[in-house]
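Review this fold:
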Amino acid sequence: MNQPKAILIGVIADTHGLFDPAIRRHFRHVDHIFHAGDIGKRSVIEQLEQIAPVTAVSGNIDAGELGVFSSEAVFELAGRRIAIRHILYEGGRLTKDGRAFLEREQSDICIFGHTHQPRTEWFGKTLLFNPGSAGPKRFSLPRGIGLLTIQKEKVLPKLIRLRDNANRRNRSTGVKSTKKTGGTR
């Protein structure tokens, strides 16, 4: 009897228009990518789609062409019910709407963003997973992405820290920008 293969999911949030080239390396073997909002630019999704199929939700900064993404999504993948929503926590606390969403959807996994803080914890039987922010460095928070490996009976979350700078690459284009040099202002 064939063992079902493990499914590898790339998880990203809060890119704010920045596509860090390191994402390609970390996501090169993923079967699917979930973006939990605050995308910033359509080109971020386009670059992720070159790696694997993408499911994304809009965040509080996503309007215009990015407003085509729903604010939340729920689907089945590898026998698991997966929910994705940008805002689940705010100010360090589960929001009233976030709690209602979790109770209504009864998912096995809920992927979220917004706080820019990596987080892996349980809400009842639901694994809550926030990869942190893959966008420009803000405050003292680390930049990061995540991986979820779904095997038979297990879901294995992994947080991956990204370098604080994205190799002086231009936002979302992957094109090197010119280095600033001294001179007159």
Remarks:
- The radius of gyration is 17 Å.
- The chain has a mean pLDDT of 88.
- The first helix runs from residue 22 to 27.
- The chain has one domain: 7-162.
